[in-house]
């Protein structure tokens, strides 16, 4: 990872920070983007590296995606690895009661945001002699159904199809594209979903989710980051177009 130029969307979130930490200690230069300036500032202070850059952007707005890509090109000199990671969980509700504004938010961030990232990073990677690697954060929800979170499940299925098409388009340019598909991860997003599935009894919901995982625990942020690190690295140079669960056997 030494001297690799890396962009992480959703970079101030739990997985994004864990990933940035792993990259920085290995000598990469990293740009993290996220929606809130305060979260980016906190991440910058926590990680404390002069090779870490931040940029406030809403990935659901194409103009802002174009701006963070231009900023990365200016500060890093290009992009070798792109973690197309930003996502939102939405709410827990039956499909016939789901608020359309929330539905639109999930689709705009989780699908359009991923597409805009591909649209603007691809031309930058095509300029590289060695191509690049793009990792899209999907989910086990992209491989199976779950009731009452239809928009989230839909979005995570959609980006798998997006990845497969992008991998085929990227191959002539040595641009690799893969997805990472985590099971429940022990972080803020799952606290939100636990409370949504069992209001006032999130701890009990957590136990239920854990029982659905053969290894009987949630993934840690680091579990996911380490797989993402591998897929971004040259060690995975012959891997593209693949779906990669990090799920403790949940989809087995």
From TrEMBL:
Task: Provide this UniProt record's keywords sorted from A to Z.
Answer: Oxidoreductase
What InterPro entries is this protein classified in?
Answer: NAD(P)-bd_dom_sf, Sc_DH/Rdtase_CS, SDR_fam
| UniProt keyword annotation of Protein biosynthesis present | no
Q: Does the keyword Ligase apply?
A: no
Which one Pfam family would you cite for this protein? adh_short_C2
| Source domain of life | Bacteria
UniProt GO molecular function: oxidoreductase activity
Family, per the entry? Belongs to the short-chain dehydrogenases/reductases (SDR) family.
Q: What NCBIfam families is this protein classified in? A: PRK07231.1 (NF005559)
Protein name as it appears in the record: SDR family NAD(P)-dependent oxidoreductase
